[in-house]
Each structure stands twice: as C-alpha cells, then as structure tokens.
Structure prediction request, 447 residues.
Amino acid sequence: MCRGLPVLKLIIIGVFPDMDKFVIKGGKKLLGEVTISGAKNAAVAIIPAVILSDGVCRLENIPNISDVTLIAKILQCMGADIKRINKSTLDIDCRGIVKPVAPYDLVKDMRASYYLLGALLGKFSEASVAFPGGCDFGKRPIDQHLKGFSAMGAVHSITEGGIVNVKADYLKGAHIYLDVVSVGATMNIMLAAVKAHGTTIIENAAKEPHIVDLANFLNSMGANIKGAGTDTIKINGVKELKGTTYSIIPDQIEAGTYMAATAAAGGNVLLKNVTPEHLESITAKMREMNVTVIEYDDSVRVIREKPILPCNVTTMPHPGFPTDMQPQISVLLTLAKGLSIVTESVWDNRFRYINEIRRMGADITVNDKTATINGNGVLIPAPMRATDLRAGAAMIVAALAANGTSFIEDIDYIQRGYEDIVGKLQAIGADIERVPSSDNETISVAI
Ligand code: EPU
Prediction:
C-alpha cells in the first residue's frame, strides 16, 4: 500500500472508462499570448533524479500535467515527502525512500518510470521496477539502458510478471557506446553513473534539450557531468549529492504544438517562456511552410496569414525535427495544397492516428514509416479518438482548422503532457470545451 496518501477506493460498477471529451468548433483565428509550461520530458527525469540527493530539492517550472502527478505519486508511495509550494514549484525530499523497489501498479503505465531504474541503481546499487508502459507506437525496448548498467557492473533479470531487477556490488565507471541514439538510455546511464566509482563515458549519446537539463540539474546537486548536448558525455562519479533549487526548461513540444495550432487556424500568437534555440528545427519547417516566426530572447511570435505550402519532413534525434512533433506537423501539411512526404525515423509505428485524421477528409497514404500527404487545403470536422499523447494534440490542431464542430475522445492521453490545454487555447480565442462523454458513462462509488 502507498504510504502518506489518502486511500480512495473506487468500486467501478460497469466497465465504462471515465472519459470526458473535447468539443472544438474550428475555423476561428488564434490571437494573443500563451505561456509555455515546463518540459514534460525533463520533469519526468528530474523528479526521480531527486532520489540521488542527500537533501531537499526545490523544483521550479514543473508542468501541471498527469505524468508529473503520477511520477510524484510513485515517489510518495516509495517514501518521499513532496510539498507543492505553488502551481509550478515542488519541494521533494527523497531521504525517506529506503527500499529500491517501485510500486508495480503505478509504474506499469508510465514510460518514464524507467528513470527509477537508473536513479535507484545509482543510489542503492539495486533497483526493482516494472517494465515501463506509456504511449504505444511500436517496440519500446530498454536494451541500451541495460547494456549501460551492465557495463557498470550490474546484472539484471526480468521476471515473468515484467519486473526488471538490476543489482551491482558497486557501480564502476565504464565506456559505453549506445547502438541507437536513445534519450531514455542516455539519461538513465547518467543517473546510474553520477555516484559510481570512476569515470563513465557515454558515446553516441542523445542531445535533446532535456538531456542537458538533467545534466545541469545533477551538476547543481554536486555531480560532475561534462559534454551533455554533444555526442559524448563524461561523468566523473562523486560521493554525495546535496539539495538544490532548480528551474526546468520550457517544453519544446508544447511550444511546437501551439506553433502548429496557430499555423493551422491562422492568426498571430506570442509564445512566452520558450527557448527559441530549442525550437529551431520546428521554426525552420514553419518558415518553409510560409508561416512567419519571429524570435525574441525567451519568446517567439507565430503569424500565419498566407496559405500553407507543402514540404517534406523527416523526424530525427535532436537537433533534427522531433518525432514528438510529427503528428502535429503532418496534420498541418494536410492544409497545404500539394504533396508532402513525412518520414518517421525514430519510432516503428507512429502513424496510427492517421486513420482518425482521414475522417476529416485528409488524403494520406502510409507505407511503413512514410506518410504521403496529398493536401487539398481544407479539413472537415469529425469525431476522433486520441490514440496517444501527440496524436491527440495533432487532432486538436486539425480540429481548430476545420470549420464546424469536432469531437475528440480519450483525452486522458492529452492531459499527460499538456498543462491546461483548454484554458490556454480559450485564452487565444479557440472555441474548445471539455465536456462529459454522453455515450460513455462512468458509474462509480467512492468509499
Ligand atoms: N531504443 C532501443 N533500445 C533502447 C532504447 C531505445 O532500440 O534501449 C529505440 C526505440 O525503440 C526508438 C529509439 O531508440 O526507436 C528512440 O527511443 P528513445 O529511447 O530515445 O525514446 P524514449 O526515451 O523511450 C523519449 C520521450 C519520447 C520521445 C523519444 C524520442 C520521454 C519520457 N519520452 O522516449 O516522448 O518520443 O524520447 O525523442 O522522455 C512524448 O513525449 O510524446 C514521447 C513519446
């Protein structure tokens, strides 16, 4: 049982999921300002990284999203003391975590729970965590994470129930070459290596902004990490890590999604609290598509007045075009008159949402990892189901452009990664509401 939390038992009568839906009346221009929240994929690594600290960490600019709530709840269940100081600031004290075991029921649904492996291993030389879940877009192996742990002297086993156990007498620095550029493996190896004996070198490391953010956070606790943001990261193990105060970076993908939304609906929106360099690949594609992007120090203005032009996009690890923007840019390209080719080179199966977008009249053919989009300049409103987080975001982008009323169900996916998406879109003039699904009723009794 989870310690430190009120216990709420739910008896579910019937099998109906608790699902609201978004109702979007599209065709309205977006005008005004949106403040971008902290980065999900930095927060879900930095929060478990606090396990490694011997003090209290104050984390600022934490997004208020369900993935953050879940990872915080997991730590609480393990013994952490977490206080919310304000909407985006948490004080986290993990000194109450004494066992390197994560609660299966919470962990299994979350991809980022694999960071518990690295953090617990780094702290206790041992970890036991359920195999990570999360959005389904093909195979999501963790062999490169395990390869790194094993080079540092840990042995692992995976039980039939899907629990990953890793253990070492002590962790020693190692030279690790990643066979694929992996965000998760790079961060997890960093977590395990910060307190290891000696020096760890990660070659072919991922370079995403959140890799640099995790390294900066760990360094602010006293770690010795150099080279984050390049192919080669060098980690000299240190004996102890102290408490710190740290503000996480703005969310590159949330910002990109609002850029796509403005481009789709038309209008003029200032995105505040962004790092324009993190948006460069997205900005470049927007400009190719005839969208104006003006960069300031920590904001960007997006203006779409002219018709969108077709273009080709290939997703790649950073600094390439991010896979987490592939669905949003693909729907945008359905609004361009002409042929665009989108190639997904990171994930095996990230075009499942295309069937939903076809309901809006889009002419898209998918062949393995390539989508051929024959844009005709318009989308028609339709009912859709979010198939994963970014797919759901793309459906919102599409619905904002379609004249008439669209419905999006399975919105829980979207709330995993977008803080107050309804409020932020309403503030720039979108007609979007969250309403209970009339045809999917949950009948539950809390006791
Ligand atoms: N891969 C392996 N072996 C591994 C690890 C990865 O073969 O051990 C492969 C994967 O199958 C994939 C590629 O390497 O084909 C890249 O995977 P990566 O490890 O980089 O992805 P991840 O760490 O599981 C994070 C983000 C994803 C984002 C990817 C790529 C988090 C929690 N998730 O996943 O974000 O798509 O990096 O940038 O940080 C999202 O936010 O919507 C999302 C899915």
Summary: The CA atoms of residues 360 and 380 lie 5 Å apart. The chain has two domains: 5-37+250-436, 40-247. The chain is about 30% helix and 25% strand.
